[in-house]
Every structure is written in C-alpha cells, then in structure tokens.
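Researcher: I'm preparing a figure for a lab meeting and need a structural model of a single chain. I don't have an experimental structure, so a prediction will have to do for now. The sequence is pasted below. Please return the structure as tokens so I can convert it later.
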Amino acid sequence: MSSELLKRVECKLEEIPGLGTFIVVPKGLEQVIPDTTAISGVDPKGEQTLYRGYTIEDLGMNADFYEAAYLISRGVLPCDEEYKEFKKKIDYWRGRVPEKVYDALKTLPKTHPMYYGAYGALLLGQIYAPEWSFDKDSLYEHQIRLSAQLPVIFAAAYNLANHGTFVRPDSGVDHAWDLLRMITMREPTKLEARAFESSLVLYMDHGFNASCFTVRVVASTLSDMYSAIAAGIGALKGPLHGGANEEAMKMFLDAYKKAVEKGVPLEEYIVDYIKERLARKERIMGFGHRVYKIKDPRTDVAAYFIRQLKDGEMWIKVLKNAEKVMWESKKLPSNIDLYTAVLYYQLGIDIPLYTPIFAMGRVVGWTSHYIEQVLDNRLIRPTEKYVGPVGLKYQPMEVRCRR
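Model: Understood. Here is the structure written out token by token.
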C-alpha cells in the first residue's frame, strides 16, 4: 500500500497498552481487504467484475438462473447432466416449502417485506435443524433449499399481507418464470420471464458487499446457514445497501406526475427535476457505487431488456438523460438499481418487492459465501479502540442522582 493511500484512508499502526500493535483501518472498511474469495469480485487488473472468472454482463445476457447459480455455488458452468440434476433439485425444493411456513406467513401483518424473508429463513432453519451439519454435501443441499424456497416465501408473504391470497409454486416450470408468476399473480410472457431472470443473475453476487460480509461474519461463528441468511437480509434491508431501486422508481413516478402537470415529456423533464432536487441538497438514489466509479456494466444488460418491454424507448431516454445530468453535476455513474427499478415497473411488480427480488437472486451468493467461509474458517472478530471514559466508580442511585 502506498504512503499516499495510507494517508488518504487513515490506515496506520497503533500500539494499544497491554494488547499489542494493531492495524487501524478507515471507518466503513473502505479500501480494506479482510479476506480472499474465489466467488466474485474485481479482476486483478481492476477492469471487470467477475463471477468465477466470467463477467457479470456476459452471464446476465447469456446464462439462465440454473447455470449462473451452479457456477457461483460450484465454481464451474454445468454440463448437461449436472445442469439437469441441479435444475431438478431447485424446482423440487421450490415446490416443497413446508406447509407450516405458509401457515405462519398467513399470520403476518402488512409491513416491510424484507421482514418476511428474514422470518421465513429462520422458520426454515428451525424446521430443517435436525438435518443440519457442516458436511460439504449437506451444505450444498441446504443452499439449494434456501435458494429455491426463500423467493417463494417473499412472494407468498407479501401477497398474503397485501392481497389476502397467494399463488403456490409449480415445480414443473422454470424457476424465474414461476417466481414472476407468483409475484405478479399472472402468467408472464417468455420475454418478461427472461428479463426477470437476467436481473436475478445480475444481482446474484457482488464481492464483499455489506450483506455478504454480514453473512460471512455470522458464518465465522459457525452459526447455521439459515441464521446467516436472515442476518444478510437484515443488512440488505438498510437503505444504504438495498432499497435504492425502490426509491429510484418513486422518484421517476413523482417526476412523471409533475411532467404531466407541466405538459412536458418525462424524458425531457427528468433533467430539470433532478437539478431541482440537487439544488435542495437531496440525495438521488440509483447513482454511485463503492466499486464502480465510471460505469456499472450491469446496466447495459438491464437496458437491453428494458428496450423490449412496455414504453422501452421512452424509459431508455429517461435513464440516459438522468445519467447525463448526474454525471455532469456530481460525477456519479448510475448503478444497476436505477435500471432494475424501471425493469420491475415494466413487469408490473409492486415497488415494495424490488428489494426482496434483489435478495431472491443474492441468496445464491450469500449461501456460497457462507460455504466458502465455514470450509476455511477463522472467527471474524476485530479489535476495537475504546475512547470512552475511564476511572469511574459505582455510586448508589441516591448519591449519583442527587441534584
């Protein structure tokens, strides 16, 4: 690490009396590498983001859910028999959500749908607890169950709470098509299903992001996979990690309403709308990224499908004009959430489900990181630097509270 970088990120060595010498890293762990992974990340040249050696955009355009999930979890793209067996298991377990889980979901109130996933993951953990072990084959089996069943739980719980009913899974159809059917409670077209499937692949993993690192921390304690994934969902629920696509779509809809009032096309008005919000020091969601400083390559894949769906050309103009003004004003590129916001809106998906869909794809990455962590484990436990008071002595309430 260069001295300039050390100075910029405030990384230094510090002696703590009685404990020894420690590396002091920047708040937020920015530009800190706590471990290695072979699952996903930026390539050694810093030019592309990879899933097991393949660029995310390559897989987003060409791989289906099963191929990408097999790659991330097993390390290679599957051949014919491997693909058939993996698909068979995903489809089987998608249709085998325990009835006790559905009964529990029927009791949940209408609230943030990320709670449903965390609750459901923990329920599955309790039900499958007798079968739990750290054997590698067992870990893969539980990974498949979670990857197949967590999306069903999100869709069923949300529709039960908001519409009073839900659509059960069908093990005889493809995973992405079935999930979109359960989410929207209608049969999607082949194009809609492929667009949705591509977004699941794009969201499947992304290095040591906040939720992934949370999963790895929990895994390092040797807690079970279900508890770790529930924790990851909690991290993704936070608006600084997940939720950007929801806020981006709310922004677009607000801009559309005002554009109609002004009699101006949205693709033109979005420029003034964003400038006005920036002038008020408001944050514009869907822009900026800890990794991508110039361009998020995943947006090109999403744009390909947006063009083919309802009002596609209009939405592309809106997105490009929004990108232009944000780059000129803040030098911030768009990220995948800006584009999936529009994509999911075109698919007729309720906005509160946008972040859960993020989790429906990311569960594959989370569980892969869980397995990678526990198979080569060391407890993740950094040391703190205490800066609070010292030397205080206990006093009875009547003394310490005397005024």
